[in-house]
Amino acid sequence: MACAAALVTAACNGHAAITSTGPAGDPVPGGTARIIMINEPRSLDPAAMSNAWAFNAVLGNALYGTLMTNDVQTGRVDQQMAESFTTKDKGATFELKLRAGLTFTDGAPLDAHAVKFNWDRIRNPATGSSSIRDAAMVASTEVVDARTLKIALRMPIPNYAHSVVAGGMNWIASPKALAKGQRAYDAAPAGAGPFTLRSWDRQDKIMLVKNPRYWDAPKPYLDRIELRSTSDTMQRLSSLTSGGADVVVDTSWKSIDKARKAGFPTQVMPLSGGQALTMNTRRPPFNDLRARQAIAAALDLDATDLSVYNGKGKIPYRLFTETSPFYEDIPLTRQDKKTAQKLFDQLAAEGKRVSFTFTAQTSPDPRAVAESVQAQLSAFRNVDVKIRIIASAETAALFASRDYDMLISSALMVDPEPQLWTVHHGRSSANYSGLSDPQLNAALDKGRLSTSMAERKAAYKVVQERLAALVPVVYYTRAAPAVETAGNVHGARLYGFGSLLPEELWMRR
């Protein structure tokens, strides 16, 4: 579903820290890069796109550029088309200052009025944007002058910049072009990014060409980008190994390892949190803590990693990576088969047999995770697991309906904000487990509102303790926001949730 890294071409083995050696020489202009994404967008409207590596990140960055990016190691926010994003009242209000002279490809100015139009539109529920959970924190926007926008939040959030960086609010489209309607806009989208649309053949390819008026000259270095999409992990890798692609967006530890072994430069974003088995605490069986504890104690996460990722994944035994300032040695789950069976038996004796459906997307990895969980739990008495497979297009409706027992969701982060609050707070619409615990909510609020690192660390320690005690989710793997490149492609940089910056790419021809 939420780190501009000065990462450069490097191999990653899935377990060691990423090292960086850097591309040899200076960037060379020219060339066409063939990039394979995971999902084709339903529209080129930025409000309908998702700024995450597994969705439309590289395309959105190409058409619209970025207001801000952030650093993968420190979480520091870096300004791009924004000149500054500041608060003087501990996050109650912010002032966004834009660079001078920004222009959309339709000739209109990218000014404070345009940002206000886009942000107000995203936070309007009628728009149906996937970024509404971040934009909904905005109470009002006010144009101060052509380059300055004042933003008032519904509650103080000192680190609100991270919400802008990781979502669709980072992409600004021309209001004049959007006013023409979706069909006209999809034919001629107008942003201020490094590339413009030449053509879009649905279910085939998207052709982009260099924007000669891009603000950060001499970028972009490439002349053209050809984008294709497939959700088949092995098909994407096959395209790279056969010479049919220059850049591949990846999400599977298994194919990442295969690409590395084949000699292709590979980058993986080292994010905390990860992908999780999310249990719906609003209804049986997982409204009973014992059922959740039994599942967590029964599962062998190493076995799941072996069956799904050939043992090449990273298992999040702790919520934060050891390099994070928020790391605490608090195990999220521990396997204990005897305890699991005791809990399953106890629930069955009370007429609460643990029987549930695992709903997973049709793509290979989610299906394999569901099958691993089903197979492992089949070794226990008094627990039944069914699997329901849905298309990726059904996911949003499923999340909205809350009609599920278990599914896969994620909380990906460098800084805890905004993801941890969004995923685990009782008042968040994106809290898919539905758990609302007063102590957990209070700690998440304190971590969000505090400007003191010591106070934030203390608050997030409580968060980790409560997640371990209440088990609304079982984190089973670190996410793998990854990009693999041909040997002659350099300059790959990622930010946010593995969002690839196409203006940095260059090819040695």
TrEMBL record:
Domain Solute-binding protein family positions: 79-424
Cleavable signal peptide: 1-16
InterPro entries for this protein: Peptide/Ni-bd, SBP_5, SBP_5_dom
Keyword Protein biosynthesis included in the entry's annotation: no
Keywords in alphabetical order: Signal, Transport
PANTHER family referenced in this protein's UniProt entry, alphabetically: OLIGOPEPTIDE-BINDING PROTEIN APPA (PTHR30290:SF9), PERIPLASMIC BINDING COMPONENT OF ABC TRANSPORTER (PTHR30290)
Protein family per UniProt: Belongs to the bacterial solute-binding protein 5 family.
Protein name as catalogued: ABC transporter substrate-binding protein
Highest classification ranks of the organism: Bacteria, Bacillati, Actinomycetota, Actinomycetes, Streptosporangiales
